[in-house]
Amino acid sequence: MIKVSLFAEQEREARLDRIGDALSKLAAHVDFAALAAEIDEAAPRPGRERGGRPPFPTELMVRVLVIQQLYNLSDEQMEFQLLDRLSFQRFVGLRQSSQAPDRTTIWTFKERLIKTGASERIFEAVNRQLDRQGYIARGGQMIDASIVPVPRQTLTRDEKEMMIQQDAMPAEWSPPKRRQKDVQARWTKKHGKSDFGYKLSTSVDKRHKLIRRVQVSTASENDTLHFERVLDPGNTSREVCADKGYLWHLGRRAMGRPKLDLGITAEERRELEAIAGSRSFPHGLVRRAQMILWSGEGLTVREVARRTKVTPAAVSNWRKRFREARVPAISAFTMGSTS
Fold first, then answer.
1. Which of 5, 10, 147, 192 is least crowded, fewest Cβ atoms below 10 Å from its Cβ?
2. Burial of 108 by CB count in 10 Å (0-12 exposed, 13-18 middle, 19+ buried)?
3. Are the C-beta atoms of residues 326 and 264 closer than 8 Å to each other?
């Protein structure tokens, strides 16, 4: 038999607290009122000149967006969950309210933030709160970029030229068509695969695994530009974990010259480059010289193996031989010898 209680609502909330409600812990550590104040300063609330229903408080809408991002919910799903889910209602502050933000209200609030460029202010405010709570960026940082695909556009040649060259929509497009077309997304090619959309780069501190910096652009923008923008100088450690492509393209400009862990001298480099560029030396010798040169430029063993079409073990073996006996180790003769 199901037990009926006049205090069922309170009993469920008490049980949620005993089990451990992650949203309650989040509310205890984040000052959402301060975040709302930052937003109202960066993106002022719309006026009431036209009348209509007053907007929901900014703090409430910030909490709604937090839940939406945490659980990856669409605007429609978010509307339903606010009406149905106890923990969401409690976190947002709607337990005693007969109203809840609908999908249009949620979309309008996000558009308000986007149009005024308030997202960076919000992110900075969150990081300041994290620092005050003791979550200082430390232990180094991990940086990576990912492609965010969007639906591919079906356009005529003239429409493409106008959108790319003039960064504008054709005048003959109707309002509904304009809303369906993404004129900012661009094409890019990565690992032989073409993608259409945007590029998202993040910097995460290694100690707490919290995102510290974010950069979003069209997919065609170079990764290295993102690297410079998300690199966090406030991290207590100088250690940076990033894709090898960052090191290869940035060179001295951002991270300094890649470390020559093999200690190749200028004279050795000249010898190796002469061997690597020769058409008369045996192919195996040329390939070994290329291995050492690429290793000296900071490429990983796996990348050198891919370029020279050998196994990683072979690359490691020749790197070891070079460290022990230098250039003569990769050949039975040295430059200038005829034997």
1. 192
2. middle
3. no
Whether this prediction's pTM lies above 0.70 is answered by: no
Using a 10 angstrom Cβ sphere, with 0-12 exposed, 13-18 middle and 19 or more buried, the burial of residue 258 is middle
CA distance 294 to 321: 15
**235 near 137, Cβ under 8 Å?**
yes
Give the span between the Cα atoms of 213 and 201, in whole angstroms: 8
Residue pair 105/60 in contact by the 8 Å Cβ criterion: no
**Residue showing tokens 């990081």:** 127
Task: State whether the Cα torsion 231-235-239-243 is positive or negative.
Answer: negative
Output 34 or 234, whichever has higher pLDDT: 34
- With H, G, I as helix, E, B as strand and everything else as coil, classify residue 339: coil
Higher pLDDT, 325 or 288: 288
Q: Which residue has the tokens 């040169």?
A: 293
User: d(Cα 246, Cα 225) in Å, to the nearest integer?
Assistant: 9
Question: Helix 119-132 to helix 103-116 angle, to the nearest 10 degrees?
Answer: 90
Is there a contact between 113 and 43 (Cβ–Cβ < 8 Å)? yes
If residue 61 lies in a helix (H) or strand (E), which one and from where to where? helix 58-70
Token pair listed for 171: 């005048």
Which tens digit of pLDDT belongs to each residue from 44-87? Answer: 887 666 666 678 999 999 999 989 988 889 999 999 999 988 88
pLDDT tens digits, residue range 170-201? 777 788 777 777 777 888 877 778 888 899 88
Residue 296 near residue 262, CB atoms below 8 Å: yes
Task: Please give the Cα distance from 120 to 213 (Å, whole number).
Answer: 9
* Average confidence score pLDDT of the chain: 78
**Dihedral sign for Cα atoms in the order 294, 283, 324, 267:** negative
Examine the pLDDT at 228 and tell me if it is beyond 80.
Answer: no
Taking the C-alpha atoms of residue 127 and residue 210, their distance in angstroms, rounded to an integer, is 9
**Measuring CA to CA, how many Å separate 234 from each of 86, 122, 128, 213?**
39, 18, 12, 11
Spatial separation of the C-alpha atoms in residues 235 and 139, rounded to whole Å: 7
